[in-house]
Design brief:
Mean pLDDT: 92
CATH superfamily of the largest domain: Winged helix-like DNA-binding domain superfamily/Winged helix DNA-binding domain
Number of helices: 5
Distance between the termini: 31 Å
Largest sheet: 2 strands, antiparallel
Oligomer: single chain
CATH class of the largest domain: Mainly Alpha
Strand order of the largest sheet: 1-2
Shape: elongated
Structural class: alpha+beta
Radius of gyration: 17 Å
Number of domains: 2
Length: about 120
């Protein structure tokens, strides 16, 4: 799941949808216990008073695992195997990681311009 930047928004909203942010916040709150997709999905819908599909939450959590922002362990439970998701970074570390991804990409694509912009914005 490549990050997409919306400069018209602020904070985590620049990169994530509301249900995705609520999933992250939930995992930060319950850290280090982690949660299965059902618990994350229930929390998202309770917090946002909405009807986000469980598949949307599962797909997001799995994409975040693929990006290295979440980890998981498997356990056997009702209905078979379940993933228990855990956040890999606390909130400040998470934001720093995202900033590093963005700056790293800019340095790769526009090295001189990015260095100049960074030095002028200090």
């Amino acid at each position: 799941m490549p990050l997409q930047l919306d400069t018209g928004k602020t904070s985590l909203e620049m990169f994530f949808k509301d249900y995705q942010i609520e999933s992250l916040r939930y995992l930060w709150r319950i850290r280090p216990d982690g949660a299965n997709s059902r618990a994350a999905w229930t929390n998202v819908n309770d917090s946002l008073q909405g009807s986000i599909s469980r598949a949307s939450v599962i797909n997001y959590l799995n994409a975040m695992v693929d990006e290295g922002l979440l980890t998981y362990t498997e356990r056997t439970g009702k209905g078979g195997h379940q993933r228990v998701y855990r956040i890999a970074f606390n909130e400040p570390e998470f934001k720093q990681h995202i900033a590093g991804l963005i700056i790293g990409k800019l340095l790769k694509e526009y090295p001189q311009e990015t260095r100049k912009a960074l030095s002028e914005n200090r």
